[in-house]
Structure formats: structure tokens, C-alpha cells
Amino acid sequence: MNKTSLEKKIINVLKNITDLNSDVDIVKSGTLYDIGIQKNLITVILDIKNKQPSDYEEIKKLCNSNLLKIDRTKNINIVFTSENLKKDSNTSKPQLRKIELEGIKNIIVIASGKGGVGKSTITNNLAISMSKSNLKVGILDADIYGPSQHKMLGISHLKPSKNKDGKINTIVKSGIKCMSIGLLIDEDQPIIWRGPMVQTALTQLLKDVDWGELDVLLVDMPPGTGDAQLTISQKVNISGAIIVSTPQEIALIDAKKGLNMFKKVEVPIIGIIENMSFYLCPHCNTKQEIFDSGGAQLVANELKVPFLGKIPLDIDIRIKSDEGKPISTLSDIKISKYFEEITQKTINFLDKNKLD
Ligand SMILES: Nc1ncnc2c1ncn2[C@@H]1O[C@H](COP(=O)(O)OP(=O)(O)OP(=O)(O)O)[C@@H](O)[C@H]1O
Ligand SMILES: [Mg+2]
User: Fold this and answer.
1) Is residue 93 a part of any domain in this protein?
2) Which terminus of the chain has fewer Cβ atoms in its 10 Å neighbourhood, N or C?
3) In angstroms, what is the span from residue 313 Cα to ligand 2's centroid?
């Protein structure tokens, strides 16, 4: 590891903090797991192993106050991780401990193999559509590298507060509870996230946020099949995954990869959505299949998973999204029916596979 002088200073400070029930410091004991340095943020990850986060509160405070002395202009973020493996008593197969999220009845991930196919757009429009069907809905933006929900929902100027138990409150927009790393960090600063930091950040977004009671938490995933997908699949019980693809061959190949990854980690597949499926000319009402169409249906048939529906390519979807007002918040729009159909199929899936 290339230790910058700041990193060395941080380690020296941490070497002066004695670990819990021990006579060695938190660096020597291995509790220090990782350090992240951004322009105005120092993140220190502590692996608290089998201990409770509350046991480490004092140490957290000490780290915080001592690190502040290095550079008062930086924010300090001390996060806990615990990656201990637990033996499953039936199979003796090692399992990562799941996070218990008592108030959340269903967690649905919205994923794709390829980037830019419309996951985030579909996530917030589906959320609104589900909320119109009287479900209590939340959105977790799991895209740590490139969060977008805070912008798409027009809440990027808001900063989440904390409740009396120290949990982070969601920001509520159009009846949807939202949490995104974009609401918590300074967006103008480039961030280099390391693998363990992504896992820890995601775990905290799930665990340290006051989600309250939710019928459905929609998780907007980053593209691909990396750290975030695995962390979510391992850390929480997922009711199902929705895979988004555009009709092009290249997107469909990646969609298959995404599907297979979720199947491998035993996450049920709710189905595939074909986004930007066709263009409906607002003047003459002619349907144009710009990127070809129907490919996602074929993939669904081939992999024996449900096809949830098509969403047209529609300029208003893009414009409203950029304005921070998802199109489904508007009333009397033709596009709503496409999301309503997918919402209904998703609700049917949840009813059939009730986890609550
Ligand atoms: N059906 C659609 N019609 C028109 N524009 C769309 C449609 N779906 C998505 N878009 C636009 O395409 C762009 C990419 O969409 P979005 O950010 O939702 O994709 P993504 O899959 O979440 O991307 P990433 O992989 O980077 O997270 C956005 O500008 C969005 O407004
Ligand atoms: Mg996205």
C-alpha cells in the first residue's frame, strides 16, 4: 500500500488508541480494517468482529476527536464492519451474517449487466407507481460510485438529519423514502472507493438508516455483477431481482450475465423489463423500433423467467428525470400504464412468494 504522509499520520493517531478489553492498540489488534482519504473526508473502517457497535462507541469517539486534531478542515467518518463468517448449523456451509431489517417486508433489486439502460429511471417510476397502489415504498440507491436517485427525485439540495437513536432519516419525496450516498457526501469531490468501502457503505445505508415500515424497498443497483451486487445478495434477504435491458444484442448478453449471477446466489428473478423498447411518435402515433425490439422477451423465454413488460423511449421520461420530477409523478400521462403493468406483475410475484 502506498502510504501517503496523511495516511501515516492517521495510523500513528490510531496506534495511540487501545482496543476494547485488550492491552494492544486498535492497529495492532487488527481492528483497523481500512482507511479512505478523500479531499475533505477521512474514513476509518473498524472491524468490530463479534462485538456490538455500542461497545465500540467510546473508541469511535476517541478516533473521531483525535483524528480531527490532524486536520480540522476534514470530516471524519468512522464506520464499523464485521465480516465474520457464521457456520450454518444444517449444512455447515459458511454464511455471511444477514442484516435484520425488521420493518421492511420486501427488498427488490433493480439490476442490469450493462450501464445506462435505465435502471435508476425505472426504479423511481416503479416506486411512484407502487406508491399509487397504496404500498409504502423506499428507494435505496446502491450505486456508490455514481449515485443518481437524489438528483432524479430532486432532493440533492437536502441533507438527511439523524433521529434520536442516531439513525439517519430518509428524505421523503412524492411519498417515497429515499437514501443515497449522494445525500451524505460532498458530490464535487472525486472519491476513490475500495472494495471493502463499498461493502461497508452499502451495509450502513441498509442498517444505519431509519427506514421505518416499508412494504417494498427498491434497491437501485450499479451496473454489472460486482461488489455491490454480491454484498446486497449476501447481506439481506432479497425477495427478488428485476433485470432491466435495452433491446440491443450487447445489452441482452449482459442482462443474461446479471440474471445468471442472481440465480447463482439464489435470488429469485421477478422478471425482465425491456426499456427504450420502441419510440411512439407523438405526432403520427407510429411505433418505431429504434434499437430493435422484443429481444428481452426472447431472453426471458430462453432463461425461463417472466417478462414484465416494455417501456417506450420517450423524451419526456428523460426531461422529467433531469428536472428531478419522475414522469410518473404527473397525472394523466400515457406512459404510466407501462409502469402500472409492471407494478401489478411485481405485486403478484410478492403475493405468491410472501416472505412476511
Ligand atoms: N425510457 C426512456 N426514455 C427516454 N430516456 C430514458 C428512458 N430510460 C432512461 N432514459 C434516460 O437514459 C439515461 C440513463 O438512464 P438511467 O440513469 O436510468 O440508467 P442506469 O441504468 O441507471 O444507468 P447507470 O448504469 O449509469 O446507473 C438517463 O438520461 C435517462 O433519463
Ligand atoms: Mg443508475
Assistant:
1) no
2) N
3) 16
Residue 96 lies in a domain: no
d(CA 207, CA 200): 10
For residue 139, CA distances in Å to 21, 253, 293, 349 come to 39, 27, 29, 19
> How far does the centroid of ligand 1 lie from the alpha carbon of residue 349, in Å?
25
> Global pTM?
0.76
Q: Which parts of the chain register pLDDT below 70? A: 1-3, 39, 82-97, 187-192, 194, 291, 355-356
Q: Give the number of whichever ligand sits closest to the CA of residue 245.
A: 1
Tell me whether residue 295 is in a domain.
yes
**How far apart, in whole angstroms, are the C-alpha atoms of residue 90 and residue 85?**
15
49 and 111 together in one domain: no
Mutate to test the pocket of ligand 1, among 120, 152, 291 (most ligand atoms within 8 A of CB): 120
Judge if 58 and 158 occupy the same domain.
no
